[in-house]
Amino acid sequence: MTAVNLNDLDSSTSLVEGLDSTKGSGPDKVFRWAAFGAGLMVLVILALITITTAQAAWPAFSVEYFTSATWIPSAQEFGMLGFLWATLLISFIGILLAVPVAVGIALFATEVAPRRLRRSITTVMDLLAAIPSVVFGLVGFYVLRAPAQDLFRWLGDVCAGIPILNRIFGEGSSGTSILMAGIVLSIMILPIITSISREVFDTVPRNDKEGALALGATRSEMINGVVIPHSLGGLTGAVMLGLGRAMGETIAVTLLIGGVSNPPITIDVLSASDAMPSAIARYLSESAGTYRAALIGLGVTLFIITMIINVLSRKVVGVFDRRIKGAA
Amino acid sequence: MTATQTRSSVDERLKVPRDVRVSTIKGSRFRRNRIATIGMVAAFVLAAIPLLFVIGNVVVKGLPVVTTKFLVSDIPNNAAATELSSDCDTLRKYDPTAEGDDAAPVEKPQPGMGRAVVGTLITTALAALFAIPLGILAAIYLNEYGKQSRLARFIRFMTDVMTGVPSIVMGIFIYELWIVRFGFPRSALAASLALACLMLPIVVRSSEEMLKLVPNTLREASAGLGSRTWKTTLKVVLPAALPGLVSGSMLAVARAAGETAPVLFTIGAINKVAAAKTITGQSTTLSLQIYNMITNGGKLSPQMAWGAAFTLIAIVLILTTIARTVSARFVAR
Q1: What is the Cα–Cα distance from B269 to B281, expressed in whole angstroms?
Q2: What are phi and psi of B98, to 5 degrees?
Q3: CB–CB of A124 and B223 under 8 A?
Q4: How many whole angstroms separate alpha carbon B29 and alpha carbon B20?
Q5: By the CB < 8 Å criterion, does B162 face chain A?
Q6: Strand partners, A72
Q7: Residue B138 DSSP label
Q8: Closest Cα of chain B to A251: distance in Å?
Q9: Single pTM value for the model
Q10: Distance CA A102, CA A187 (A)
Q11: Contact with chain A for residue B332, Cβ under 8 A
């Protein structure tokens, strides 16, 4: 009982709640129920999303739907693996490019930058997060496509003779491709990964950091020895949240991935493909019957995958939070 | 110096070892530290480049297009714009009221994004109208009533999860429920519902954080004077948290204003909005127009899209800046 936890103190002295013993007087009751109803709305909306979309997609769901990569609407063949693969591949590229930069910026902001510069880092990240997806798509489509085409062709030529690389970087026929979508995606998910990484790094106890420095560690040794090991759990959560964002990103990817009707399962990142949300955006308004159900099925699958990723990442961050609080 | 010393962060305190390092630390360790620092700075520069590139492009290509006329004139028909491609000066001479057959080749008004500007403002405002009161009320439940109860914790968790739901799923949801199931027409209203679904979790979480910042002593003082929770919340807690609530909501609004995917199937995407039906009729937004301009092609499309992008970014950045200013003042107080 020597160290009183702030939370315990809080609940034991909550006088406001004590006064609530005579519940049920007019306005208070109404207000309480209104607030409660609003709180429940979140759950209601999530349930409605699940039920409505799943019902609409139901006619398309079958074993083939989840195990085949053949998507030929005219032949009523719907296997979503091609779209899933493309979504995973561009998200993977996005994460691969974004995470080192995001962690670098977050370390810079928490460990190196002076106070004034720190604020401008926040501003840059906020601005980047504020730019609408369609504007990234616009700049990518009108400005970057031509130079990207030249660059990708050159990359394809250079890698043509190298065993594994010539599979990954095939013949770059056009600027809009998996790699292009992945690169733009990495810029778009950078802010969220950076801001969560910063929060995670901020929780590293100052004692540990100063202890390392007092033992003669340089700043990079302190970061490697104290900050990173302490933050691994939180960073995992940050990466997963970024992954969830990347998978659901629609418009910029739609404009930049090229768009093919039956995306192949390929590791050639210079080829055109199509992601799950992009296919919905492209075809839903002109589809009917099973085709429409199949497209909505892509949305349902995406919804479920992102929900799982989000739940897991929140749990990871949550466990991590508790561990820090327990240790402190 | 001493006054700031107590509040100074870790970095300032690290200045002592920095001096030690120069004198005693071995060269390779020193170099590795240098490289790590340079890497971190490079990461920041690497993130700033795309930001400057995107904003620079939009300003350079969009600003010349955006005039007051652009902001109020009608949107050109894409197909017609392609037909007129031989005319170098299409932007000035093109007539948006001519629908093919009886196009009058007289003095033509400049095409613009008027309807999209109106549509963006209306759908975003409606979405804010739905999501912000509901979100703040939900936050009040979480912070003032539910607290750490199991249900409140579950709602909090699901709200976090809901922020990660892809925006296009919100679009499909409203499309299926509102338009297919209930049979309502595509409209600005339907689009605003989808945007409201997107905004709701953001508003709830940011509002709850702001309510948390209100000191408990204020609540206890109010209770001590005999107020019930509802009166304490409305008269004491909400006014105290108001700037924070405003800034959190504004950020959510800014996010919704730029979204395309939830609007795609729900708004109708027509170029000419019937003036009497700005809410219940089909409409369009700036983000959707940019998308349509790119995918449909046409001679006029690039200019129109850049102009729309400039307008959209201006709207989003104005909202974001207001939010930042308000919240900065809130924190300073």
Answers
A1: 11
A2: -80, 120
A3: no
A4: 13
A5: yes
A6: A77
A7: H
A8: 7
A9: 0.84
A10: 10
A11: no
